[in-house]
């Protein structure tokens, strides 16, 4: 975990030695080369189109507790909005 594997492969963050900067994989060309100098900095397999092969326990949708949190927040804010409207109506 501590030492980075050799071979110059940076997972997720392509590094261009010529430009001395990191690149977002989305900002690279389709063949994985640097958009500024053309140096090859990443494998084409790392392109965004190959990301969907990444294994995930839940590929679609948010976890249930997130949905519960959103539902509770919407309910609470709706209730507070209702209270606010009633308060304004009483002040008129
Ligand atoms: Zn470059």
Mean pLDDT: 79
Number of discrete domains:
2
Span between termini: 65 Å
Shape, principal axes of CA atoms: elongated
User: Over all CA atoms, what is the radius of gyration?
Assistant: 24 Å
Percent helix? 25-40%
β-strand number: 2
Strand order, biggest sheet? Answer: 1-2
Q: Structural class of the secondary structure composition? A: mainly alpha
Main sheet attributes: strand count, strand direction, barrel closure: 2 strands, antiparallel
Low-confidence stretches: 2-7
Any key phrases for this structure?
2 domains, binds zinc ion, 4% strand, mainly alpha, 92 residues, two-stranded antiparallel ribbon
Structural notes for this entry:
There is one protein chain. The chain is mainly α and 92 residues long. The chain folds into two domains: 10-51, no CATH class; 63-92. The protein is built from one helix and two strands, in the order ββα. The chain has one helix at residues 64-91, and strands at residues 15-16, 21-22. A two-stranded antiparallel sheet has the order 1-2. The longest helix is centred in the last third of the chain and has 28 residues, at 64-91. It is elongated. The model is unreliable at 2-7 (pLDDT under 50). Zinc ion is lined by residues 16, 18-19, 34, 36-37, 39.
